[in-house]
Input
Amino acid sequence: MKNMTDEELVKNINKYEAVVIMGAGDAGEYLLRMLTEKCQDKTIAICDNSHKKQGKCLEINEVVSVERAVQLYPQALYLLTSSIHEMTMKTQLTALGISDRSILIGVTEGSCNYLEILKREIKFRPLEKLQFEVDITAHCNLNCKCCSQFSCIAEEEYIDVEKMEKDFRRLGKLFEGEVNRIYLIGGEPLLHPQIIECMKIARKYFRTGNISVFTNGLLLLKQDDEFWKVCRNQGIDIIVTKYPISLDYNKIFEKARAEQVEFSFFSTSEDYKYMTNLGLDIEGKQDICKSFIHCGEANNCIKLKDGRLFTCTRPAAVYKFNHFFGKNLEVADEDFIDIYKAESKDEILRKLSSPIPFCRYCNVLGERRAMEWGQTSKNIEEWL
Output
């Protein structure tokens, strides 16, 4: 369906005194600037579920939570900034009492053109410093539906510490021990019986840059004194993803503070109240350039696995999906760069900022179906 022009959107909001933009990303910022300029007689507000964006000022507007926006502007028109996540956003708004008639997709030709230019510039630009993640385990103890890492359908699998050290030694040499950030992730990294050794290896070969243990938090309070000591002395922080589960997150926060370990939440439980299908195209018919440009993970969530760097997590983890469902989403040599064959860090960074054949399996612009958070039923539809 063809998107509206900016002018058509302005006409559609004429009868409303207030407009709330849902989503404070690049598209939301574009709409905020455009509507502030063209609708000076109206109240224009912006909201987002991310606690990291809440409280920030865009133009002269403070980003508020969705719940707060509904309290302040119950009669406003709500503009959704993503057609992909339309159902998730609508589900949240209607649950808060907003009528379907007061919800409109705010994606315009202008915002799409703006995002295309912006994303092309960002995606094809090699990173100044490497940032990457490594799966300490493939499996998890939470088993969320729609897991982008396929951890809920993975067999029990732990990284080999000796192989990890070999890969880190090689990368450390290529990048002269400098990195922007490393995530020790999973699966659930705290399931690994040698998690402390993994943490030491990461810092041994990268003396500068941030190193984070990225966890769901379920096992944090069970960690021994040595774990907290290594975090504190090696400058390794902890990031917890908040899910809508029965877990005392305040107690976890207080423990980290008492241990003098840097700690943060990746999200609020509201961020993960609803999940969406992943959008895999198992026939591989997507335009690889468009998929790469519009992918939030490409050249961002770089994955190190078995001596290979992938521009995103999907091709590195898809073997779990293939094994469980008996599929064959192919990972070709062109989908990664071998760190033992690469001759320089610049060669690696250039490769990671380029589309790969595997992008044909990712329908990043397709519609997403909203599902209330919960444990997986292991139905393939969660990932399609």
Observations:
- Residues 127-383 form a domain with the TIM Barrel fold (CATH 3.20.20).
- Residues 141 and 188 are 7 Å apart (CA to CA).
- The chain has twelve helices and 16 strands.
